[in-house]
């Protein structure tokens, strides 16, 4: 298990590497450019070279890029849908430049069209991902992130994520990122042993656990099943320390990279969250012996 943070990139890539080192990052997630602006410049060649050398020297892997928050592949408005696909394509290209293995993307919301045919929405999301892959010129994977279900967000059920993958022309380029807070708010009981077992069994049926490439470890300020997306500090929210003991020691999750996206991204707050998360890992854990 490699643990890291979503690390701010303000001030350039050299400062980002320093922040990652201060936070003891073993893996990392970053934005390329401002998360709520469509335009993003091309990283300078010297910065890219320094970044790639730095992540190698610090043994930070995998590197994940988070797509721009404005991306809405579920939008029924053609101009916004096309703009979203193009920006995802740009993020895929930047991920490849930075040595990233994938781009995490929120699948978006159809807005007022939410009461219509959900299969049309799923097909639209898949078509947007396909367009981005074709335009992006990159081998980086697209990591579909589950949603809390807030505002009719696509992907609050693992089954719907599987439907998007099934509708894509490039399923081999698609993987999944599951967020603990989003899952909890969507009604998946990740905080309980049996609940997590059932959730992962559903994920396996829906898209195959071999596609699960990344876990976002965030506590939830919102209640279980509330469909409200509110990240909180590890052990201080509704999932709680006991819930994270369940999550981090599950045999199907223990070997996956973990990224925290907790609020207040100060060094002090991030280190508190890091130690809180690490305290939940049972070092002595051994997988059960299979019999018969």
Query: What oligomeric state do these chains adopt?
Result: single chain
**Any idea what the CATH superfamily is called?**
Divalent-metal-dependent TIM barrel enzymes
Number of domains: 1
Number of strands: 10
Tally of helical segments: 9
Q: Determine and state the CATH class.
A: Alpha Beta
What is the global morphology? globular
Radius of gyration: 18 Å
| Helix-strand category | alpha/beta
What is the terminal separation in angstroms? 29 Å
Strand order of the largest sheet: 1-2-3-4-5-6-7-10
Description:
It contains nine helices and ten strands. The chain has 292 residues and is α/β, with parallel strands linked by helices. The chain has one domain (3-278): TIM Barrel. The strands form two sheets. An eight-stranded parallel β-barrel has the order 1-2-3-4-5-6-7-10. A two-stranded antiparallel ribbon has the order 8-9. Helix 3 (78-97) crosses helix 4 and helix 5 (158-167) packs parallel to helix 7. The protein starts with a strand and ends in a 14-residue tail after the last helix.
Descriptive tags:
292 residues; 8-stranded parallel beta barrel; alpha/beta; TIM Barrel
